[in-house]
Amino acid sequence: MTMAQKGRWLVVTGLVLLGGVYVRALAFTPVERFQGPAQKIFYVHVPAAVTTELAVILLGLAGVFYLFLKDPRLDRFAESSAEVGTVFASIVLTTGPIWGKPIWGTWWTWDARLTSTLFLFFLLVGYQVLRGAVPDGSLRARYSAVLGICAVVLVGFIHLSVYLFPTLHPQPIVLKPSKPSLPGEMLLTLLLSFGVFLLLYVGFVMQRYAIATRRAESFHG
Amino acid sequence: MGELLRQTWTIARKDLLLEFRSRTAIVSAVVFTALVLTVFNFGRDPTAVSALDLAPSILWVTFTFAAMLGLNRAFQLELENQALEGLLISPLDRRSLYWGKLLANLAFVAVVEAVGLPLFVLFFNVPVGRVLLPLLAVMALATLGFVAVGTLFSAMVVRTRFAELMLPVLLLPFLLLPLTYAVQATARLLADRPLSEVAGWLRLLAAYDIVFFAVASWLFPYTVDE
Amino acid sequence: MLWAEGLRHAFNEGRVVALDDVSFNLAAGQTLAIFGPNGAGKTTLLKVLAGLIRPQAGSARVAGGRRAIGWIGHQSQLYGHLSVRENLLFWASLYGVPRAERGARATDVLARLGMTDRAEQPVWSLSRGLVQRAAIAKALIHEPRVLLLDEPFTGLDLGAAAELRALLAALRGAGRALVLATHNVDEGAELATDVAFQLRGRFVQYAPRAGRGSAEIAEAYRRAVAGTNG
Fold first, then answer.
1. What pTM does this model have?
2. A138, A143, B75, B210: which sits with the fewest CB atoms below 10 Å from its CB?
């Protein structure tokens, strides 16, 4: 089985499982007391946000390794991770306002967390714009690595800021120093959703990576 | 280290001399700053929003755009007659090249700000006399952050298509953070809040400067080598 | 003075071969002329020698390192808004010429190139031929022992080209080694002590000149180019 096929299977599996998670979320997970059914979107929103972040961090790591190893495969991975990350960032930026309207009464607010996802989105888009503007392959890889590393450093700073700015956004509930503050049922659904999103990320990246490889090879022929 | 600093100074002095000779970039940046400040003045409804409320944002948006003008120029001038290639063939250390460019860019932006600040005070009738020193500290720290990242990126975009457009697209997400810190600090200064409330923002700015200066010094050689 | 061993380099992930197993060495007093069509990898070779590109395989070494290299290309590498003299002082400083010597060094080089009266003129105001002479002054300011010349005749009219050839002829000897890369055999053959034809990254011929005339070299080059194409 080629990598593209494996990736496709992973994505199909992921989508089916996502359906399963949502059946569980809608039918078998208790409704949140204050937010009502709107809170259900959180099982997409939060895992998508975490996956976006993961995509950016892996992009930066691939950049660091690329600068030392000069292996074009790392660059292809970074390229794939950036594109997939952009898709997940779009999911976060769409689901956030849909949730925000009934709960906060506004589609958008310049809250630190919303803004930080917007940052990620801009960084990822900028990354791809830069890639499009450098014709030479190895120069493009090097520039992308540099920008990717800077992006990760910036993301670190943004997180630092998020804790310092007053925020409307719900505080992190799972990944925080003290114990997760979520009822067991909801936590399980959320964790399942995390797993599914991770699967989708890997599946998408594998397919995109296969395209990048084929593109590189077609020039050799 | 002595040799590194000597080369750094050689590069910075050359850039400043070039700027002084042609003067086109600095004059347009200063005029641009004055124009943006004027535009902002007409862009607000004086009966609805007081100048003091908007002042910090106006100041920093103006400085951000002015800095961008200067940064675009930094490596553009090395393309003339392929001087950049000459620099890379010479025994010049890549870090010295970055630091020299950084120094020259800082001087460039400092001149623009030195003209921009009095104009800002004049146009918006903002009393800065009492907080001048801390305000200058905010300006110095924020400018260093802008220029540290901007110099790195300008070395990259100069070899891409649509360089003038590319720089803002890549750079603005990075400038938003120091811009936010600077606006918060400036707002507190202008509102006569105690200095202790500003210190946190200054520390954040300083942290941003140190981290990005270090990261950029490490990454810069990868952006200029072939 | 100059050693290259098994140099290989390709661009765009191996799609464009610029250097294919290139080896040679050059002693003081020798001039290697490399002839090849555009895109044959001549500039890449010079950039590898100058340390600008790290080859993917093989190694190149220049006695004395970066400080010993002077570069003359078809672009002057001079700043248009600075005077000729200011340019020279800047490059002298970058190459680590002691401050006390820089002024005398610049005066001396300018005199050698007959440009004393142009010293204070900004580079942008000079004619193409004079800019090229200023570029040579810049390349000589740190007294390099190896000169790399990349298509130095491009854009010069016949008179200026002849003048440049005379200048380069005078630079040979005196313990210096020259590498001249050009696509035009008629422009460089008479300067060479060694001749190489570079096609698609490869030295298809590399031999001492051994008394061959310029016309003979030009003829051999045309045959070599026709041979690889056909």
1. 0.90
2. B210
